[in-house]
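Lab notebook, bench 4. Still working through the backlog of constructs that have no structural model yet. Next entry is a single chain of 622 residues. Request: give me the structure tokens for it.
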Amino acid sequence: MVKDQASNGPSPGESRKYRSRKQKPCDLCRKRRICCIREAGSDCCALCNTRGKTCTYLAPPPVRRRLPQESTQRSVSQSQSAISRSDQNLHHTLQYLGLSGDQDPYLLQHSSQQKLENAGHAVWACKKVNDNPEMPAQFTIFPDKHLDARPIYYPQNDVEGTAQPHKDELINAYFETVHPSFPIVSRSEFDPQSASTLYLASIYALSHVFCPEAKSIDPWVFLNFLGQAIPLEARNASLDSIEAALLYSQRHTYVFRAPTMPGLMAEIGNLVGMAHDVGLNVDPTNWKIPEAEKKRRKRLWWGIYMEDKWSALTLGRPSYLHDDQHNVPMLTTADFDDYQASNRKSRKEEISKRMFIAMGDLSIILSDVLSTFYTVRAVQMLKDMPSEEKDNCIFSFTNRLNQWDSVYSSLYHGNHDLFPDPTGTLQLSYYTLEITICRAVLRDKYDHPVRKRGEKMVLLVIEMLRTLQISRLRAFWWAVSKVNFSIVGAFMFSMLLTSIEDWEIDSWMSRITTYLKLLKEHSINFDTTKLACIRLELLSKVDHLMEEGGSNSKTNESSACMPAPSESTDNATAESREQVRLGDGNGNMTYSVDDPFEFVSFDPFGDSENLDWDALMGVSLN
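Model written out:
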């Protein structure tokens, strides 16, 4: 009987035609998780038929439905983020067409799809902004969803809710204090109602320290959101997101340690990549875009250029930008905002514009200095270069800096009576660049005439720091200034260690002591000098360790003369005012330095003596 029932079942070759996706399995098939195959018109499935079992269907199988978790998280994340972009209504992103890409701009200049408004729901379109056949300028247009612009892990938006009680005060503080020193945002065109959350968060993060009304707000709400959102926004870069990333790269330091701001150089690379995606490196003067956008593009490009070059200097890293890959003309005062509320503000804005232009011109010189003296190949090339050719190279740079100083020195030497005065960053950067050239030259030849030039710049920095007014403190916030102060201090140590005469050693010891005391004094209410304080403490401790090592070289003899940090602190505590000698070591230019507080020495090494250096280097290198 079983055999007959089995013969009535479907053969393996015929089994497929009996399968039905809608057929509910019997209990036996369901337990084995196999298809319940039934012959047409039969109440017994093939499995039960071959086993002689009664084919029963006792209960429906549990329905296992996959919850739309991904779509739910995506909608929740997007609703919470509530990101409003200037092009959100279009849901499209424009990307600049490079000359060497597979989408040849010389070919696509014949494309008929030339307008963004005609793109509609298309997955690709082309927009031509320049009719020049020799240098076509075009953008391809993609839907944001094709660029993964809003992934499910986009950070939750707590920015607006946090800033809302003091939103107006934060924005006013930005334009009153931050903007004069870094005037890339157009005040007349800025609309907080339509600005993106990313854009607003970067403004809040910079203005928070200058807004007493918002002191109760945790600034890390803004910084954490920016740190998570900017790398995602880089996938579909826009002028808003680039401006926000540029401002974020200038953020304030809240935790002061011996290292510089972690990950900054990688962020600069990300910022440069975003700039190239939207074609900021190409001159937009003849493009078919609004004049306001042309000006904004120029300001953004030169802001990124400055950030790249000065970060390369201060962090000792290669520059991301190559001068043969951009042709954006230098800024003029006409490229900035024309907003004027009063005569006093108008004068402050004029100084602010000129200061930013001067910083751009100085950055061009810096770029040439870095490529000439501070690349891996340049070190060997300079070593093999004839002395006469090297001196001509040095003279060309010092001559360019003299010309720059003759044009712009009135900005930071004049009596502006401005509050805040935004020119401190520019003045320190000029002195630092002069010292940067001296460092490169004096690596090989300690008695080069440029040594006197470096000594002069050190004295100017000390004098600048000694006479620093409160009007400058508020606008002296550029991130590069923190390390520039440290570069000056490191150069002073180099001058000390390469000194031969006793009077010169004593002179540099006095200058270092004075400089460190000034940094300590200002660091109470001026965060820009705190990092340099830590770095000089570190260098002082290194010299003290060299002294304990017992080396008999002339270098270490001069190092041994440098007091340890604890000794310096004790002497400062014992005397409320101490006469410190400046100048040429003969007693000229004396003044008093107040040291009214006890500076807690920072230990940059920690328990470094017990570190397993071999194991550490093995892990790092392997």
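Notes after review: The chain has four domains: 2-51, 84-147, 159-335, 343-609. Residues 343-373 form the longest helix (31 residues). Flag for follow-up if needed.
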